[in-house]
Design a protein that fits this description.
The chain is of the alpha+beta class and 160 residues long. It is built from four helices and five strands; from the N terminus they run βαααββαββ. Homohexamer; trimer of dimers.
Amino acid sequence: MTELTHIGPDGRARMVDISGKTDSERQALATGRIRMAPETLARALSRDTKKGDPLAIAELAGIMGAKRTADLIPLCHPLPLTGLKVEITEAAEGSALQVSATARTTSKTGVEMEALTAVTVACLTLYDMLKAIDKSMVIEGIELVEKSGGASGDYRKAKP
């Protein structure tokens, strides 16, 4: 199998050759937040704005974004997603929405980028849906929380 690197023998960028890897079940969970004014949060949670239900639209946008990850991230492999779930809930603390995405595949490479892309696109969609109410919203903390499967093994973010 070729070395797994984005740098070719000539020193130029290339897509990693994964042809020698075997398919396996892989899953990744990513999360992020969007902080906003309490009034904006109340409007979002009411699911009734002039643009429609911001949570439902952002969840759908996250799914659609994850399906386009290879088009957005240079050198990222296109993957057949076998499952993708995006959930938006009120954050446990502060005036914010918590976004989480779980991506699944049976493939030769992982789905971390798809989960992270889903969260990012969902957060950006929430911003777009609510910006007429609050332009000072802040998207933060987009991170991989856990992943399973593949040659590199399982990962779980350490608790602070």
